[in-house]
Design goal:
By secondary structure, this protein is α+β, with helices and mostly antiparallel strands. It has one domain. The chain is 16% helix and 47% strand. It has helices at residues 77-81, 85-93, 96-99, and strands at residues 6-9, 12-17, 24-30, 36-40, 43-47, 50-54, 58-65, 70-76, 104-111. The structure holds zinc ion.
């Protein structure tokens, strides 16, 4: 069984690592402003809303699959520099539900847009 590159916590996606090298590429961070604060047992408790954010090293690769379809996988900026068929295959097989028996034929393009 392949180890997932997605970590769940409290029932939601909490962290996403690069499926090729395991570098963290998405993480939960506190939203800009706290939702509320209240006194509990004499202590001020500040409630924050957490959001899953893409880190600056987040990239996506769109790969052509052997059945003519496409698959998009998240990867890190370092792995995006010199993508090989072996690397994109490593990313593809770690997403067995979406990929199934399909395999990448070549790396198509990498999205360098930093997502919020
Ligand atoms: Zn990587």
């Amino acid at each position: 069984m392949t180890k997932s590159y997605i970590t769940y916590k409290y029932g939601v996606i909490w962290q996403v690592d690069c499926p090729i090298c395991s570098t963290m590429i998405r993480s939960m961070i506190a939203d800009d402003k706290p939702l509320a604060s209240e006194k509990i047992n004499g202590k001020t408790v500040i409630r924050e809303r957490m959001v899953l954010s893409c880190l600056p090293n987040y990239r996506e690769v769109r790969m052509a699959m052997n059945d003519g379809s496409f698959h998009v996988a998240p990867i890190c900026a370092s792995c995006a520099v010199d993508l090989t068929l072996e690397k994109v295959n490593t990313a593809a097989v770690k997403d067995p539900k979406a990929v199934g028996d399909r395999r990448p034929t070549l790396a198509m393009d990498v999205d360098f847009t930093i997502k919020e």
